[in-house]
Design brief:
Layout: H1 5-14, H2 18-24, E1 32-36, H3 41-52, E2 58-61, H4 66-76, E3 83-86, E4 89-92, H5 96-103
Parallel strand pairs: 1-2
Antiparallel strand pairs: 1-3, 3-4
Length: 105
């Protein structure tokens, strides 16, 4: 009889089935990107939130990077910052509740 020994080993060592193990681990978060400017108070608040919650993010300063500013405008149709992208979701402004919901924190 063919048997997946890795599954048997997991059950033996931990007492959990593989599905229970999969559910106990948090999957990696979606990629987080923020389009910001250096003088934007809400941008700074969003970055502080990410730091406090150990959220890795990529930051594009659209005040200095014209290509990223154009990318942001094409994505949102406007120039307001911050623009926060979490996976495929885009938030204009810093809505902590929505960010928490999308990051599942």
């Amino acid at each position: 009889m063919d048997m997946d020994t890795s599954v048997v080993g997991i059950r033996y060592l931990t007492g959990y089935t593989t599905s229970a193990l999969k559910n106990s681990f948090r999957l990696p978060m979606d990629k987080v990107t923020i389009y910001s400017t250096s003088t934007c108070h809400f941008c700074q608040a969003a970055k502080a939130f990410f730091a406090e919650n150990n959220v890795a993010y990529e930051d594009f300063n659209v005040g200095e990077d014209a290509a990223k500013r154009q990318e942001m405008v094409e994505m949102t149709g406007q120039l307001g910052v911050p623009v926060i992208r979490i996976g495929d979701d885009v938030i204009v402004g810093f809505d902590e509740g929505k960010v928490r919901e999308l990051l599942k924190i």
